[in-house]
TrEMBL record, chain A:
This is Ni,Fe-hydrogenase III small subunit. The keyword NAD does not apply. Belongs to the complex I 20 kDa subunit family. SUPFAM superfamilies: HydA/Nqo6-like. Pfam families: Oxidored_q6. The keyword Lipid biosynthesis does not apply. Keywords: 4Fe-4S, Cell membrane, Iron, Iron-sulfur, Membrane, Metal-binding. Residues 50-161 form the NADH:ubiquinone oxidoreductase-like 20kDa subunit domain. Its cofactor is [4Fe-4S] cluster. It comes from Acidocella aromatica.
From TrEMBL, chain B:
Keywords: Magnesium, Metal-binding, Oxidoreductase. Mg(2+) binds at residue 416. GO terms for molecular function: NAD binding; nickel cation binding; oxidoreductase activity, acting on NAD(P)H; quinone binding. The lineage of its organism: Bacteria, Pseudomonadati, Pseudomonadota, Alphaproteobacteria, Acetobacterales. PANTHER family: FORMATE HYDROGENLYASE SUBUNIT 5-RELATED (PTHR43485:SF1), HYDROGENASE-4 COMPONENT G (PTHR43485). This is Ni,Fe-hydrogenase III large subunit.
Length: 179, 455
């Protein structure tokens, strides 16, 4: 029994992740506060990715990274979304669909570019088939770089946006490592 | 490469893999790696009648303007005819002329966290009569970006053709460049590449099996398999510095040796997966509500899979025995007596069972390889040479082929054939045997790459 108890005590992870205060501060100056609360719904659009960013985006929802514990969730409809999360280059063939997804969202809304391609086109910068990154089509509020960014980095980036934009957090519940 | 007359080109039999064109020739690739060519006349070549040739011929026209004379399918592949604002006309989607039929349009933006593509279903009630996929949304001009770059620089594009198969694409690309430049890769690099390729297979098999179960409303399997994938990715990062092992495989070898503690991290992740796999497998096999969704759903008959030379689990679940690791074969697999599972049911369940059977085999391969890593350098610098070459690697979804022509140390021409190109038509067939609600399961069970075909 003691062995099991000890295992459970040791397997308890540190506190839930918190955003970097410096990033939060600079985001607050840039994006400013909106009437959105802390529980935000995300509509993901791949505008021309290689699917690596989608893999890591899906991994933010797994038992280890558990994005949902912070009140952030993915929604299938832009009508229900507070955040438009764009991955991949903005391919010319996706420009129209990306603009339509943004137009379908209620205001206020935030736009997050995830991955080097969405930040500025990444390795595909200069290709005639693309309009650059997400910024080539839409105004972007937050960029999360990386090729692809790790799930942890995506979570921290989104948390910083929540902190900068919304009311202060209540104390987070301690997290348990999945067994 | 064999240059054929127009008659011989058309009459050529065999398992067709890919077709592409350059300035002077059209090329066709057959298993297990036979390359034939025909000269272009007035920017045209005779169309091939192989089932899988359609998409390639459409792509060749969109990319290079080369016409396939006699082709029955001339729909655009990646060319959407869009204006500067990105607006373009919708193509006409033909519907079977049956009473009560209507169309359901899905995409390019899908409900989940996946790539973009448009699906047009013709349905009567719930029953799908026809599916037409319109792809090309993730077209990034990859082939054009590769041309004019050095082999080492262009490796970054090969690694981003399809992110879930980045290792396999990088290996196939590197092998093509190594054939072109007559490079002998050191043994340690060969082993490390294979370790990475098998890790990639495990990461994709676990997350996809879980995702299919998740689509059937079975969240338990989804979260357990997602955790298995997470452990593999974390171990890959510890060993190779990147969770998906992107940019680690380069022409001439690998970019870095396995990190300190990397092998232990990998072996631990494998142990955890191996320990849990039997119980997860039992859940998959025992729950009637889950089996009810996957058995008999989205059937690809063996004859159809053979016509499209389907590879990977999509082919092996439908009686196709081909695996590029065995035929044409490449090192180091000849040392490890590879076992390739094959079934004939061709439904979603069979594709899952194939992937479940491939997991222990990949675990065994990785363990054996890590225990017998040769003690050699990890890379040699590619010389500034000229030449042409084909390269192949078996990705988790089937063989990936690269064709390269290098002139004076710079890539003059390139073509990339992802197995998805041959699998998308299979999805169109399989979807038309089921109801609309089963489409997500069927789609995920075949899991074609959008980016891999839009190039």
């Amino acid at each position: 029994m003691w062995k099991t108890v000890a295992k459970h005590l040791l397997s308890r992870a540190a506190e839930a992740r918190t955003a970097d205060p410096a990033v939060v501060q600079s985001l607050r100056e840039k994006v400013g506060a909106s009437k959105l609360g802390r529980s935000l719904a995300i509509r993901h659009v791949s505008a021309g990715s290689c699917n690596a960013c989608e893999l890591e985006l899906r991994a933010t929802q797994n038992l280890v990274h558990d994005l949902t514990q912070y009140g952030l969730s993915f929604t299938p409809s832009p009508r229900h979304a507070d955040i438009l999360l764009v991955t991949g280059v903005s391919g010319k063939n996706m420009r129209e669909a990306l603009l339509q997804a943004r137009a379908a969202m209620p205001e206020p809304a935030l736009v997050v570019a995830v991955g080097d391609c969405a930040v500025d086109g990444g390795v595909f910068k200069g290709s005639p088939a693309i309009c650059g990154g997400a910024g080539g089509v839409l105004p972007v509020d937050l960029m999360i770089a990386g090729c692809p960014p790790s799930p942890e980095r995506i979570v921290l980036g989104l948390l910083a946006l929540v902190e900068a934009n919304g009311a202060p957090a209540r104390a987070a519940m301690p997290r348990r490592e999945p067994r | 490469m064999i240059l054929l007359s127009h008659e011989d080109w058309k009459a050529r039999q065999g398992r067709f893999i890919a077709l592409w064109t350059d300035a002077r020739h059209a090329y066709a690739l057959y298993e297990p790696g036979e390359l034939v060519a025909v000269e272009l006349v007035d920017n045209a070549y005779p169309a091939l009648t192989h089932a899988g040739a359609g998409w390639f011929q459409r792509l060749a026209y969109d990319l290079n303007g080369h016409k396939a004379i006699g082709a029955t399918d001339t729909r655009p592949a990646i060319e959407h005819s869009r204006d500067a604002e990105g607006r373009g006309p919708w193509p006409e989607f033909k519907t079977p002329e049956i009473e009560g039929v209507h169309q359901v349009a899905v995409g390019p933006i899908h409900a989940g966290i996946i790539e973009p593509g448009h699906f047009r279903f013709s349905v009567v009630g719930e029953k799908v009569l026809k599916l037409e996929a319109r792809l090309g949304y993730t077209h990034k001009g990859t082939l054009g970006m590769i041309r004019g770059k050095s082999p080492r620089l262009a490796a970054r594009f090969a690694a981003r053709v399809s992110g879930d198969a980045t290792v396999a694409h990088s290996i196939a690309y590197a092998r093509a460049a190594e054939v072109a430049l007559r490079l002998e890769v050191p043994g340690r690099a060969v082993y490390l590449r294979a370790v990475m390729a098998e890790l990639e297979r495990l990461a994709n098999h676990t997350s996809d099996i879980g995702a299919i179960a998740g689509d059937a409303g079975f969240a338990f399997l989804d979260s357990r398999f997602a955790l298995a994938r997470e452990r593999i990715c974390a171990a890959s990062a510890a060993a190779f510095g990147h969770r998906l092992m992107m940019d680690v495989v380069i022409p001439g070898g690998v970019a870095g040796d396995i990190g300190t503690g990397g092998a232990v991290a990998i072996l631990d992740a494998l142990d955890a997966l191996e320990a849990e796999l039997p119980s997860l497998k039992r859940v998959f096999e025992d729950y009637a509500s889950l089996q009810d969704r996957v058995v008999g759903t989205g059937i690809v008959p063996p004859a159809l899979a053979a016509a499209y030379a389907a590879g990977g689990y999509a082919g092996r679940a439908s009686g196709q025995t081909h695996d590029a690791r065995l035929l044409p074969g490449y090192p180091p697999y000849e040392t490890f007596a590879l076992y390739v599972p094959v079934e004939r049911d061709g439904d979603v369940a069979a594709r899952i069972r194939i992937r479940l059977a491939e997991i222990p085999e990949s675990i065994r391969l990785i363990r054996d390889m890590l225990h017998s890593l040769p003690d050699t350098p990890i890379a040699i610098a590619p010389p500034t040479g000229s030449g042409g070459g084909l390269g192949v690697a078996e990705s988790f979804r089937g063989p990936v082929w690269y064709w390269l022509r290098i002139e004076g140390g710079v890539i003059a021409d390139v073509f990339i054939a992802d197995p998805s190109t041959l699998h998308w038509p299979l999805l169109e067939h399989a979807a038309a045997t089921a109801i609309l609600a089963d489409f997500p399961l069927i789609n995920k069970s075949i899991n074609g790459s959008y980016s891999g075909v839009d190039l």
